[in-house]
Design brief:
The complex is a heterodimer. Chain A is built from four helices and eight strands, in the order βαββαβββαββα. The longest helix of chain A is centred in the C-terminal third of the chain and has 18 residues. Chain B has one domain: Beta-grasp domain (Ubiquitin-like (UB roll), Roll). Chain B has three helices and five strands; from the N terminus they run βαβααβββ. Chain B is α+β, with helices and mostly antiparallel strands. Classes of the chains: A alpha+beta, B alpha+beta. Chains A and B meet through β2, β3, α3 and β7 of A and α1 of B.
Chain lengths: 149, 85
């Protein structure tokens, strides 16, 4: 399931909802992303996430479909937030459920890698006097490419 | 044609979106970009950073060879950035 929302999410409730009623599930792997401070600069006041409504859901669904075609996943969930977020707030939840742990671990890592390089989200960091758009990270692009090696 | 702008492209153009009448001789995304540049200095500046600006046609990533028409929804934006997790 794909959810793009401004509101925060409760991980426990979401994971329970993901697995409820499916006794074929042997394990769930989840990843939660947070807004974090950069240790190398002054303190981050907030981060604003902008996205492309419509295309975001389309890209996330495409990534999710690809994960299901590569691994035997019983269920998967991506919740991504947008809007103005403070350091320490949750940005994203990715969870994969499978009969066995390997598919769940790998599927989850694949989803988060792809989400970061394919889903149309942009971030503006607010350092008080300086507000700037964040460029794409070369390390993220490499993380995505490894799935095609 | 509807065109949408995101992130610093939106700041540079000064609008979230615009409606254009695309000249009928323009049939590819590459031709569209050349035409788009001529609309003003800020438009040219956006495209001047063309190794960084990405394009979508009808909410699908597109390259210069892709077909384009006046009925399409086009978007211009910087490379996407996930969270720094």
């Amino acid at each position: 399931m794909i959810i793009v929302q401004r509101e925060d999410f409760e991980v426990g409730i979401e994971l329970k909802r993901l697995t409820e009623g499916n006794n074929e599930i042997g394990g769930v792997c989840s990843f939660i992303g947070f807004v974090r401070d950069s240790p190398e600069r002054e303190s981050l006041e907030a981060m604003t996430l902008q996205h492309y409504p419509g295309m975001t859901e389309k890209e996330l669904n495409r990534i999710d479909d690809e994960a299901h075609s590569r691994w035997p996943l019983e269920a998967s969930l991506i919740i991504h937030r947008y809007g103005r977020l403070q350091p320490g707030e949750q940005i994203v939840l990715v969870a994969t459920a499978s009969a066995h742990r390997k598919a769940a671990f790998e599927g989850c890592e694949f989803l988060i890698d792809f989400l970061k390089t394919r889903a149309p989200f942009w971030k503006k960091e607010d350092y008080g006097s300086v507000k700037e758009w964040v460029g794409s990270l070369e390390a993220d692009n490499r993380a995505t490419e490894k799935w095609y090696e | 044609m509807k065109i949408l702008y995101f992130a610093w492209v939106r700041d540079k153009i000064g609008l979230d979106s615009e409606e254009f009448d695309l000249p009928p001789e323009i049939v590819t995304a590459g031709e569209f970009i050349e035409w788009f540049k001529t609309r003003g200095d800020n438009y040219a500046e956006v495209i001047g950073a063309s190794d960084t600006v990405k394009m979508a046609i009808n909410q699908e990533y597109a390259g210069p060879e892709n077909a384009i028409s006046n009925e399409d929804e086009v978007a211009l934006f910087p490379p996407v950035t996930g969270g720094k997790y």
